[in-house]
Design brief:
By secondary structure, the protein is α+β, with helices and mostly antiparallel strands. α1 crosses α3.
């Protein structure tokens, strides 16, 4: 149980801002923002989707996810009505007022990885903070692949046949 103290209005508040709120014990962690007017709970999945959309807004991002996740995403795209999951390649930890985000991205050959990751980091922080009110304490980015235009990500060098 979290360390708590009593507010002036008699309700308890959690001292640790990184305390994960898990109502019912088995449900996903949620950020909980408490104001004088009431509580707002934001699920980790919501933060992950926002971060995923924000990362994809940057032109240098070709796709997201590690090798296996991208393969599953490619299969999902082949199914009628299927599409790439918006939170693919995104992992988040959400506290009461903070979020830490990890991203796996693939960039295009010729793009500056430093510039792309800087732009992604800025955009993710801006979007998540603006939409949720959470303080994003870190955005870690793993660049898993670089894709040449016309090549599918993760396909590697082609084989020569006669």
């Amino acid at each position: 149980m979290a360390d708590t103290d009593t507010r002036t209005d008699g309700r308890e508040k959690i001292k640790s801002p990184s305390q994960l709120v898990q109502p019912g014990g088995g449900q996903p962690a949620r950020a909980q923002i408490t104001t004088d007017s009431g509580k707002t709970r934001i699920a980790e999945g919501v933060v992950a989707k926002i971060a995923g959309f924000a990362a994809r807004e940057i032109p240098g991002v070709q796709s997201m996810g590690s090798g296996m996740a991208r393969r599953v995403g490619q299969l999902r795209n082949l199914v009628p009505g299927g599409s790439e999951a918006s939170d693919q390649g995104v992992s988040v930890e959400v506290g009461e007022r903070e979020a830490a985000i990890d991203l796996d991205i693939v960039t295009w050959y010729g793009q500056s990885i430093v510039d792309v990751t800087s732009a992604v980091r800025r955009n993710v922080i801006d979007r998540v903070q603006a939409m949720t009110g959470l303080n994003v304490i870190e955005v870690n980015i793993n660049v898993d692949d670089v894709v040449v235009d016309g090549e599918q990500s993760g396909s590697g060098p082609g084989t020569r046949t006669q």
